[in-house]
Amino acid sequence: MERVGGTGIDSAPLTPPEPDDAGPVRPVTLADVAAAAGTSASTASRALTGRGYVSPAVRERLVETAARLGYVRNAWALALKQQTSRVVGVVVSELGNQFYAGLASGIEETLRSEGYQMLLVSDNSDSAQELALTRTFLSLRAAGVIMTPVGTEGTAFLARHGIDVVEVDRQLSGSTCDAVVIDNENGARAATAHLLELGHRRIGLLVVETDWTTDAGRLRGYLVAHEEAGVEVDDELIVRIALKAPDAAARVGALLDVESPTAIFAANNTLADVAWNVIRERRLALPEDISLVAFDDVPWMSMVTPEITAVAQPTVELGRRATRLLLRRLADPARPPALEVLQPTLLLRGSTAPPVSA
Fold it and tell me: What span, in angstroms and rounded, lies between the C-alpha atoms of 64 and 241?
């Protein structure tokens, strides 16, 4: 037996139980650590959580013992006790979309640097799924939630239960919570103005049929650019496509067949992908036969020939800013809601040129 100095408690070094045929190994508990280190459970708790005084020597012994035994704190039990956790919920619209991957990267990086963990989920652009996920975050005692909202119900539900929310990419709840967005109107205006300056007068717009601030802003930018150039807009060139519409490619094909645009502006990377594939299937050459501009620069656009002219969003920074707003809110709940607007950048590449008729 080993006598632990200064405690008067005899204790043999404890090792995690070996697995046997009876089932999985029992997790090491705080009581196991305390017994092995010759302290009370309350002393072990203070040492391992950093809450309360423990002498340096005892703290060091407990930390070493916990590491040797493989002790892992039960975060959910701690969350239930303290009514909060170090987990931040993150809801995005589509995990497979590279835009949201960049956004999540910026969020995770910033949370990790401040000792928080990210729980990333997708609502598949469905408001009912979004609301269900907010209920899950409430049950997990999330410290806060960052979301690309598809409706207002989820944000309102969390607010009623005292969980702070930051809306990112879209602002659907007005000024009731913090938000970080892109200047969608300015980005779309720059993209459309570029095509108009090249001499295009029939510019097709592919935009998602929603009332989200992203799509509304990009439509406004398209219209403002035409107005500033003194070019009348043909409404038949504006194609509003529902989210995940199975006929998206057919709608783009019909635009090419019926309206004969000399350029297409796709208002998100998914619609740009659809347009690029339709153009390729019809053996049209970029930019000789038609020009193409996308809103949201994603990796494939610089991997094809010619590369695609695109409005690049500071996606990772968008995630960082949203996280900083949430952390600031947690530190100062009384501060008024803040809105941050980041500027996109138009990247000129080989998919745009003057129309043949110009």
Answer: 60
pLDDT for 22 equals: 53
Same domain, residue pair 167 and 107: yes
Range of the domain at 258: 184-313
* Domain tally, the chain: 3
Is there a single domain that holds both residue 24 and residue 49?
A: yes
Nearest to 312 by CA among 167, 200, 172, 184: 184
* Pair (249, 287) in one structural domain: yes
* C-alpha to C-alpha distance for 190 and 313, rounded to whole angstroms: 13
Query: Beta strands of 229-348 (E only): which ranges?
Result: 238-241, 263-266, 291-295, 309-312, 339-342, 345-347
* Distant-in-sequence, close-in-space partners of 111: CB < 8 Å, separation ≥ 6: 88, 117, 118, 323
Q: What is the pLDDT of residues 237-258, one digit of tens each?
A: 999 999 999 999 999 999 999 9
Same domain, 204 and 303: yes
Host H or E run for residue 207: strand 203-208
Nearest to 148 by CA among 177, 128, 125, 119: 125
Q: Give CA–CA dist 182/186, Å, rounded.
A: 9
Are the C-beta atoms of 127 and 150 separated by less than 8 Å? yes
Rounded CA-CA distance 187/222 in Å is 9
The last residue of a domain, from among 73, 102, 131:
73
Which pTM does this prediction carry?
0.79
